[in-house]
Amino acid sequence: MTTRCPSDTTCPRRQSSVIHQASPGARLDRDRSRPRGGDKRLTTAKVVYVSAYVDDATLALRLATGTSEILKGVRSVGLLEGPGLGAAGDDLAQTWIERVLSRHRPDDGFLSEEAADSLERLKKNRVWIVDPLDGTKEFAGGRQDWAIHVALVENGIPTHAAVGLPDAGQVFHTGSAKAVMGPRANKIVVSHNRQPEVAQVIADKLDSEVVRMGSAGAKAMHVLLGDYDAYVHAGGQYEWDSAAPIGVCTDAGLHCSRLDGSPLRYNNEDVYLPDVVICRPELKDTILEAAAEFKKEHGHY
């Protein structure tokens, strides 16, 4: 079976595939494996031969990369807009991810925002937790703060994860991403729609500004990039909102936890996660102490 690689730059792990690119002016034989000259209508061609096995890290990366390309294509042609565009993006991304995983990891569990939940996943040690399109409204509205989340969770912990920021042309993944630890930005980022009350208290403690942004994945990756010092959320989320961002950010060297400091665990029967913090490690104590003081006084975050 052959599949097309999304682009030259977004499919970096090709060790298990054989790729042929024809020179300009060439065309491919019927077996699509050998170029021959004479037809100038075809300028380039690529063939990727899918191997029998793709490792977990590569699979997560390619899922996020491929989904990014699909969604950029859907939006760029301009045939849909608003809620219709958002719904099409959700559906297409979900269908592709589910089909790929059913072929390459048929025995693993699966949890997605866009699919009915099966509690059979609770019997699995390996579960793929995905949000095919995090920030549907932002995607449909032509904004850049939307993301693709793909995470393999093993025994409750994200072990391989990828977060795509399609409009930025970037996919961050475990084993590669490293947090930028330059001078502080003196900014914390919160939900575009639901700023938790505790966020302003934390910002004051850090002498920082509060900035709003859509998509949990976008916010988390901008902390990783050093654009913000922390991402603070207490408006309620689900496991698919944070599994991949937490996997990438933890591996990259950032502090990730609940606002009370307890660890984040995934593949629970109840997939609701009320709060999360991702921050530079040296700010962890200040943030958690401020959150604890606020909750003690107000009873909530």
TrEMBL record:
<dbReference type="InterPro" id="IPR050725">
    <property type="entry name" value="CysQ/Inositol_MonoPase"/>
</dbReference>
<dbReference type="Pfam" id="PF00459">
    <property type="entry name" value="Inositol_P"/>
</dbReference>
<protein>
    <submittedName>
        <fullName>Inositol monophosphatase family protein</fullName>
    </submittedName>
</protein>
<feature type="binding site">
    <location>
        <position position="241"/>
    </location>
    <ligand>
        <name>Mg(2+)</name>
    </ligand>
</feature>
<dbReference type="GO" id="GO:0046872">
    <property type="term" value="F:metal ion binding"/>
</dbReference>
<dbReference type="InterPro" id="IPR000760">
    <property type="entry name" value="Inositol_monophosphatase-like"/>
</dbReference>
<dbReference type="GO" id="GO:0000103">
    <property type="term" value="P:sulfate assimilation"/>
</dbReference>
<keyword id="KW-0479">Metal-binding</keyword>
<feature type="binding site">
    <location>
        <position position="134"/>
    </location>
    <ligand>
        <name>Mg(2+)</name>
    </ligand>
</feature>
<feature type="region of interest" description="Disordered">
    <location>
        <begin position="1"/>
        <end position="40"/>
    </location>
</feature>
<feature type="binding site">
    <location>
        <position position="113"/>
    </location>
    <ligand>
        <name>Mg(2+)</name>
    </ligand>
</feature>
<keyword id="KW-0460">Magnesium</keyword>
<dbReference type="GO" id="GO:0050427">
    <property type="term" value="P:3'-phosphoadenosine 5'-phosphosulfate metabolic process"/>
</dbReference>
<feature type="compositionally biased region" description="Polar residues">
    <location>
        <begin position="1"/>
        <end position="20"/>
    </location>
</feature>
<dbReference type="GO" id="GO:0008441">
    <property type="term" value="F:3'(2'),5'-bisphosphate nucleotidase activity"/>
</dbReference>
<feature type="binding site">
    <location>
        <position position="133"/>
    </location>
    <ligand>
        <name>Mg(2+)</name>
    </ligand>
</feature>
<feature type="compositionally biased region" description="Basic and acidic residues">
    <location>
        <begin position="27"/>
        <end position="40"/>
    </location>
</feature>
<feature type="binding site">
    <location>
        <position position="131"/>
    </location>
    <ligand>
        <name>Mg(2+)</name>
    </ligand>
</feature>
